[in-house]
Amino acid sequence: MYEETINYLKELFAGNSGGHDLDHTLRVYRNAVYIADRETQCDREIVMLGALLHDADDTKLFRTENNANARGIMKKLGIEENTINMVCEVINGVSFSHNRGRRPETLEGKIVQDADRLDAIGAIGIARTFAFGGEHGRSLQDSVQHFYDKLLLLKDEMNTETARQMAAERHAFLELYLEKLKKETGI
């Protein structure tokens, strides 16, 4: 199932280089599996599918409704409707901008949200911020502002203890980076 899902995602994300691509998805997947291994009461299948498909209908990339891409992939994989609905519930709880101030209700949703947010901070978060900014014509100053508008907030919004521990180190790196960037550029 993993390899089949990856093959569908390769096609779906072909040509995307703005930080929401297959590589991002695979890092989120690895983060989610790592967290799930420590949060033993979760449904691993829901976590794994939710992590792999979390951006399959991202509004920054696609104009779909009702998780059409994710649902289509899961149907091709022969996944039962109840599982598809649970995975879509997880997917719908991931987005930072669409879920401000809300936490997922399920442990699986919390794990996938944490896994995605971990990929937005630390060294990879810095790289993704500038890749996205460059692809969308953002200035250096606008990309740096994104750190203050979102990235520096994520550490305190983690749901699981495992993610909080992982986020602490990545957050410290963001702060160090911004301090050095300010010395070099004044922004």
Set out the fold topology.
Layout: H1 2-12, H2 22-38, H3 44-53, H4 68-76, H5 81-92, H6 107-118, H7 122-135, H8 140-149, H9 161-185
Helix pairs in contact: 2-3, 2-6, 3-5, 3-6, 4-5, 6-9, 7-9
Structural features, described:
Helix 3 runs parallel beside helix 6 (107-118) and helix 7 (122-135) packs across helix 9. The chain has a single domain (2-185), classed as Orthogonal Bundle (Hypothetical protein af1432). The chain starts with a helix and ends with a helix. The chain has 187 residues and is mainly α. Helices cover 64% and strands 0% of the residues. It has helices spanning 2-12, 22-38, 44-53, 68-76, 81-92, 107-118, 122-135, 140-149, 161-185.
TL;DR of this structure?
This protein has 187 residues and is mainly α. It contains nine helices and no strands.
Overall morphology: globular
Cα-to-Cα separation, first versus last residue: 46 Å
Which CATH C-level class is it?
Mainly Alpha
Residue share in helix: 55-70%
Q: What's the structural domain tally?
A: 1
Low-confidence stretches: none
List keywords for this structure.
0% strand, 187 residues, 9 helices, mainly alpha
